[in-house]
Design goal:
This protein is α/β, with parallel strands linked by helices. The protein contains 3 helices and 9 strands, in the order βββαβββαββαβ. The radius of gyration is 16 Å and the shape is globular.
């Protein structure tokens, strides 16, 4: 029996935030990333929404022994669904993707910003996996940039935050300028 897989499209792209087996670059179609707010968290965070014709990049990784407990706990605000992912060598069916359930999220606003420390982790992961072009693709294939970006780098609130290099910081700020995001002080 083979282990099941999940598809990560945000912080799970950053291998420094987990130790799941056999991570591989992949993409899914029919989904689009979006910053959303949910009463389950005080800040906005990434989810995926069904979107015909859309394609997003990310990572797949195995869940050894089908032991979903730790990942389900990490992704507690989401519901696990099945989708089809694609690697360079072909499709992988029955891959879990985490999404906030319909009716449990809404557009972000000033009262529920995106944490810069969270975005930093996501960008760092996309840079490591897909290079600078992959980082810009992340910004281009994500909706909800009207949410304010809370600069919490001095005291990161995201529990899996990572230190960034100057190059990584520059890419974050280039991407935020690209989508005309508004940064607010923490």
């Amino acid at each position: 029996m083979t282990d099941p897989y999940f598809f990560g499209y945000g912080s799970l792209v950053n291998r420094r935030t987990h130790d799941y087996a056999a991570p591989r670059r992949a993409h899914v179609t029919g989904w689009r990333r979006a910053w959303r707010h949910s009463p389950m968290r005080p800040v906005s965070f990434l989810t995926v929404l069904p979107c015909e014709g859309s394609r997003i990049a990310g990572l797949t990784a195995a869940v050894p022994g089908s032991d979903w407990a730790a990942l389900d706990l990490r992704e507690a605000a989401y519901r696990r669904q099945l989708t089809l992912a694609h690697h360079d060598d072909g499709p992988l069916d029955g891959v879990a993707i985490y999404a906030i359930p319909d009716g449990h999220h809404h557009d972000p606003g000033d009262d529920n910003p995106v944490l810069l420390s969270y975005l930093d982790v996501v960008v760092q992961g996309f840079l490591a996996e897909f290079g600078p072009e992959g980082v810009m693709d992340f910004f281009d294939t994500t909706d909800g940039w009207t949410a304010p970006i809370l600069d919490d780098r001095a005291a990161p609130r995201y529990p899996r935050h990572q230190p960034l290099t100057e190059e990584e910081r520059a890419l974050v700020h280039d991407g935020l300028a690209r989508v005309r995001a508004r940064i607010v002080k923490g």
